[in-house]
Recover the amino acids of this structure.
């Protein structure tokens, strides 16, 4: 017995359409893989091209002298020593002001607050939105609040109206930057606290420790790599941002290093901005400009790599401990 | 066997243990008569926490609201500096809301126009050139960064081996860590020249160059969010789709991407917020000409760049100063709305995936 001719034809047609569909699908599959792979390649090559260009043009000028000398001759010679010192002072002040507050917020959010209370929700919404506020708005805020309100207020009370703190100053730039980097610290610290196993806290409580002792002696030490990560990322961000310090304390050139909280300061990031947009002689300043960009880039890369290493080590510790 | 007699009726076997008595007492027929005291756990008393612990906890609570205080202070203090536009006679003599938003017939011009010339003889504060510039640059940035960011995330989460992912993620974080002033510098020095040669452009610095440079800052954000959202899609979705005969691309395009869409949308929203507010890149690479033009290759000026470029040279409390703070408030509120939407999308993503696994 043989099958009806119609059925044979149907089966043949079916096999053919299946084959063509398979072929079409395999083509579409490879198109998708290639397209998405190309997107990834483009993203990675952006980084590579920027790095290559800055290193090629910046490296010849990057010497020890460049890091240890003051600029000379209208910024066409010398180095960026005062800018590096200014940035260091600003970043240290920023860390001292911002990190404790950020860590405290994260501890409260993770160790104390009920996850559904309106206060907790308000804090979370505020942190998420603070991270998205444009940096130039922080600059406006620094000028309006710190310089014009706090600074002028301090002058009125302590300096009989003489302008000391009521003008752009190191301390105001650092405080503005501390507010800007607050979410970075909070998010990193909370993530680290979340990774600390529950059992450690329970063991501590079972041994009779109070909640605060548990937080202070168990949770925070265990989460310290995460706090370090947050601090490093905050420093990296603070060192690179320009917009918030535009009106709150950065200066193009100063004959002296900043000695007082109310002095203005130089910063490599601001240096890059001014040199590349307002330089009277672009060709003469270009080598210095490239070297400054390279310093900035190496600094932020080193900090980011450090953050990644600390974080991955922390993760390995916990996955190793629970496995 | 001995029996317990209650009211002269034989009811239950005699019990010998307390547990038995309790079990028996719970039986309906005699519970009315035998009262068993409830079993209470022994009361544990902890020594009261030292005073300084409680003080420290109180301090912690105060510091924790700092983020809320910060965001309120930001809004209050930039709005405070912008407020004179509504009541100060000196400011209103030069600029009012309608002069900012409605095109005016300026002396020397044939027809009414919205013009931004705050330091000319007759200061003109028409905001439309700035808003158009912001929109243009943002659109270019998003048009570049969404396909690249999502595409790279699809590759890393669906095709790449885990080792590739371990390398790619930190590298993208490095890209995210590049200061925006460095990206601006790169756009100004290198990309502008390339683009000019490549497309034969008239002006070196324009919306296209700054938009593409801006996308470098946005791509890492979108990539990170999209990648995490794509990886969070449960395996069972993929398995079900494959079992139904879908090809791999069909599974990705019709199952995985839609399931991850709230997370991707959150990344796009945050990227949009960043693009609208980013300052240094556009300040350095857009050319800063406040002109109304639909062309992407004309020099252009954004709201954020205007604030950054002009605030250093204005009279404190004057009309120009007030208008710049007004623009800052506008920028703050815009990004606040965009970020809140993004936040909402993240929460939806969590609910959606949390409910299905």
């Amino acid at each position: 017995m043989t099958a009806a001719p119609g059925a044979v034809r149907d089966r043949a047609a079916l096999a053919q359409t299946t084959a063509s569909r398979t072929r079409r699908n395999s083509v579409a599959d490879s198109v998708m893989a290639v397209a998405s792979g190309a997107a990834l390649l483009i993203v990675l090559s952006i980084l590579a091209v920027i790095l290559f260009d800055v290193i090629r043009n910046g490296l010849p000028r990057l010497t020890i002298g460049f890091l240890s000398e003051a600029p000379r001759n209208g910024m066409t010679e010398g180095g960026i020593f005062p800018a590096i010192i200014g940035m260091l002072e600003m970043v240290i002040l920023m860390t001292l002001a911002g990190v404790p507050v950020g860590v405290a917020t994260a501890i409260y959010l993770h160790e104390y607050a009920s996850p559904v209370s309106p206060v907790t929700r308000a804090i979370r919404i505020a942190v998420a939105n603070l991270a998205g506020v444009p940096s130039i708005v922080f600059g406006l805020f620094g000028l309006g609040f710190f310089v014009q309100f706090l600074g002028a207020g301090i002058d009125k009370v302590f300096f009989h109206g003489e302008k000391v703190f009521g003008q752009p100053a190191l301390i105001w730039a650092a405080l503005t930057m501390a507010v800007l980097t607050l979410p970075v610290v909070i998010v990193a610290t909370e993530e680290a606290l979340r990774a600390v196993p529950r059992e450690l806290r329970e063991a501590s409580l079972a041994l009779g420790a109070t909640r605060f002792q548990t937080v202070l002696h168990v949770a925070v030490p265990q989460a310290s790599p995460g706090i370090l990560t947050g601090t490093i990322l905050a420093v990296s961000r603070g060192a690179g941002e320009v917009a918030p310090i535009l009106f709150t304390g950065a200066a193009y050139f100063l004959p002296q290093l900043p000695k007082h909280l109310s002095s203005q300061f130089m910063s490599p990031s601001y240096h890059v901005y001014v040199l590349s947009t307002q330089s009277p002689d672009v060709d003469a300043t270009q080598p210095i400009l490239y070297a400054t960009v390279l310093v900035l880039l190496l600094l932020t890369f080193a900090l980011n790599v450090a953050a990644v290493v600390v974080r991955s080590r922390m993760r390995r510790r916990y996955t190793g401990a629970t496995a | 066997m001995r029996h317990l007699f209650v009211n002269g009726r034989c009811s239950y076997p005699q019990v010998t243990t307390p547990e038995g008595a309790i079990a028996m007492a719970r039986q309906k027929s005699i519970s009315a008569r035998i009262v068993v005291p409830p079993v209470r756990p022994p009361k544990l008393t902890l020594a009261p926490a030292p005073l300084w612990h409680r003080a420290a906890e109180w301090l912690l609570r105060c510091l924790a609201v700092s983020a809320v205080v910060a965001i309120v202070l930001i809004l209050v203090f930039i709005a405070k500096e912008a407020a004179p536009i509504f009541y100060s006679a000196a400011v209103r003599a030069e600029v009012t809301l309608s002069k900012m938003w409605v095109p005016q017939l300026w002396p020397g011009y044939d027809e009414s126009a919205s013009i931004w010339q705050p330091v000319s003889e007759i200061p003109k504060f028409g905001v439309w050139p700035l808003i158009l510039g912001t929109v243009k640059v943002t659109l270019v940035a998003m048009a570049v960064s969404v396909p690249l960011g999502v595409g790279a995330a699809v590759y890393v989460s669906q095709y790449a081996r885990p080792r590739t992912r371990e390398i790619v993620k930190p590298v993208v974080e490095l890209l995210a860590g590049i200061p925006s002033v460095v990206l601006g510098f790169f756009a100004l020095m290198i990309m502008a020249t390339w683009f000019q040669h490549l497309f034969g452009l008239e002006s070196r610095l324009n919306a296209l160059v700054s938009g593409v440079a801006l996308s470098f800052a946005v791509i890492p954000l979108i990539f990170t969010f999209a990648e995490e959202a794509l990886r969070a899609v449960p395996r069972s979705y993929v398995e079900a789709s494959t079992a139904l005969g879908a090809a791999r691309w069909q599974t990705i395009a019709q199952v995985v991407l839609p399931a991850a869409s709230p997370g991707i949308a959150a990344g796009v929203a945050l990227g949009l917020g960043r693009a609208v507010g980013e300052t240094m890149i556009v300040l350095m690479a857009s050319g800063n000409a406040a002109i109304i033009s639909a062309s992407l290759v004309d020099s252009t000026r954004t709201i954020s760049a205007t604030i950054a470029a002009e605030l250093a040279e204005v009279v404190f409390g004057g009309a120009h100063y007030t208008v710049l703070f007004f623009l800052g408030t506008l920028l703050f509120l815009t990004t606040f709305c965009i970020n809140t939407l993004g936040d909402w999308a993240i929460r939806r993503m969590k609910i959606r995936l949390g409910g299905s696994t």
